[in-house]
Write a structure and sequence with these properties.
mainly alpha, 2 helices
């Protein structure tokens, strides 16, 4: 009889140990998840300005490059439009449309975020002689 009590005590202790380790694992995973989310938010907030600046620089370089190429072409034999779209022209159009769409989306998000925030009027009395109780 003592052997079965000893075995059942060990089983109960083992189950308690497993439950405790399971709770520790849950807390650890939760902590890791929060840390990962915080890191992602930090990276996103730091990389957005850099990405926007990179897009602006690439767009400006494309515009300057196309302007130089057109100036050279017009200086040599007068202005003539190419007979068919060139690869460079198609790439420039695609890049400009992509950048414009990205910029428009960002501007729309900012406008919605700024106008979507409700103003707090609960702390301001509606008339000067009224006092909140």
């Amino acid at each position: 009889m003592t052997a079965s009590l000893k075995d059942s005590d060990e089983i109960v202790r083992a189950e308690a140990l497993v439950a405790e380790q399971r709770e520790q694992l849950k807390r650890s995973l939760s902590r890791a998840s929060r840390s990962g989310e915080k890191l992602a938010q930090t990276l996103t907030s730091e990389l957005k300005p850099a990405l926007t600046a990179a897009i602006v620089v690439v767009g400006a370089a494309a515009v300057v490059g196309l302007s130089v190429a057109m100036a050279r072409r017009s200086g040599r034999r007068g202005w003539r439009a190419p007979a068919e779209p060139t690869l460079l022209g198609n790439a420039a159009k695609a890049a400009a449309l992509w950048a414009a769409r990205l910029l428009a989306r960002r501007v729309a998000q900012e406008v919605v975020a700024r106008f979507g925030e409700p103003t707090s009027t609960a702390s301001v009395p509606s008339a000067p002689d009224q006092v909140e109780s």
